[in-house]
């Protein structure tokens, strides 16, 4: 796991780096808050260890910026500081940090915090994977529903059109019946054209924004504004 380390004290950075490497993690060291924020934006690591008091941008400001980042909701943030008053802990939590560690930092304390972070990150990744699986399942359900709607929307008028066309082609209709059949064929062709037109509009909307099937909302609704009954038949 890549871990961002932000501390203006080189000895503290070295301690963090050694413990991280011993735990088979990859340290990403930064000398101050400004450098840490730039490094986070470039690498978006799953964990950040931030010293509170640093020149320029302090650790809490870096934490707030991480939380506002598009990848920041899953980043585990550990704030390290000499402060230990209750109001200090409140300030850390208000900034969005997941954990808090007081100085002086010992290897054992840091290892314990790393184990907490590892478990939290595993749970977060599992949750995201489950949410993505559910989103995909709903998307596929929407595709299936759309396929059924398309079958009904196009197959019925197409069947009517082909039936009347076959009668006319076989010479089984008189002059009046032929005119009626041509009228029916034209109407059914217009119904099919209307479905195709709406599909084209949906495709344009899909290109402009991602298609979702969430909150019990159908991904595509082809039934609005179209009568799918055949002449002389009920649905």
Task: Give a description of the structure.
- This protein is of the alpha/beta class and 235 residues long.
- The protein folds into two domains: 2-105, Rossmann fold (3-Layer(aba) Sandwich); 134-208, Helix Hairpins (Orthogonal Bundle).
- It has helices spanning 10-22, 33-43, 59-68, 86-94, 107-169, 175-208; strands spanning 2-6, 26-30, 47-51, 76-81, 99-102.
- Strand 3 (47-51), helix 3 and strand 4 form a beta-alpha-beta unit.
- Helix 1 crosses helix 5, helix 2 runs parallel beside helix 3 (59-68) and helix 5 runs antiparallel to helix 6.
- The longest helix is centred in the middle third of the chain and has 63 residues, at 107-169.
- It is rod-shaped, with a radius of gyration of 32 Å.
The CATH architecture classification of the largest domain is: 3-Layer(aba) Sandwich
Stated plainly, the CATH topology of the largest domain is called Rossmann fold
Overall body shape: rod-shaped
Task: Point out poorly predicted stretches.
Answer: 210-235
Count helical runs: 6
Which CATH C-level class of the largest domain is it?
Answer: Alpha Beta
What does the average pLDDT come to? 82
| Separation of the first and last Cα atoms | 59 Å
- Which range does the strand content fall in? 5-15%
Helix residue percentage: 55-70%
Tell how many strands the DSSP assignment holds.
Answer: 5
- Biggest β-sheet strands, sense, barrel: 5 strands, parallel
- How much is the radius of gyration in Å? 32 Å
CATH homologous superfamily grouping of the largest domain: Response regulator
């Amino acid at each position: 796991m890549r871990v961002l380390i932000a501390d203006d004290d080189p000895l503290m950075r070295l301690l963090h780096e050694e413990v991280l490497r011993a735990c088979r993690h990859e340290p990403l060291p930064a000398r101050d808050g400004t450098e840490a924020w730039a490094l986070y934006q470039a690498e978006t690591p799953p964990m950040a260890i931030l010293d509170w008091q640093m020149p320029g941008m302090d650790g809490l400001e870096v934490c707030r910026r991480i939380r506002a980042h598009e990848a920041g909701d899953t980043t585990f943030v550990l704030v390290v500081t000499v402060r230990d008053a209750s109001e200090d802990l409140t300030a850390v939590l208000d900034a969005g940090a997941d954990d808090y560690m007081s100085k002086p930092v010992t290897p054992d304390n840091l290892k314990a915090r790393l184990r907490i972070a590892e478990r939290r990150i595993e749970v977060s990744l599992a949750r995201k994977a489950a949410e993505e699986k559910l989103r995909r399942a709903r998307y596929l359900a929407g595709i299936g529903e759309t396929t059924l709607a398309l079958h009904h929307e196009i197959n019925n008028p197409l069947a009517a059109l082909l039936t009347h066309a076959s009668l006319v082609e076989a010479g089984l209709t008189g002059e009046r019946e032929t005119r009626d059949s041509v009228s029916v064929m034209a109407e059914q062709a217009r119904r099919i054209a209307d479905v195709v037109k709406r599909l084209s509009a949906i495709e344009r909307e899909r290109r402009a924004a991602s298609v979702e099937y969430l909150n019990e909302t159908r991904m595509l609704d082809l039934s609005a504004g179209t009568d799918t009954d055949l002449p002389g038949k009920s649905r």
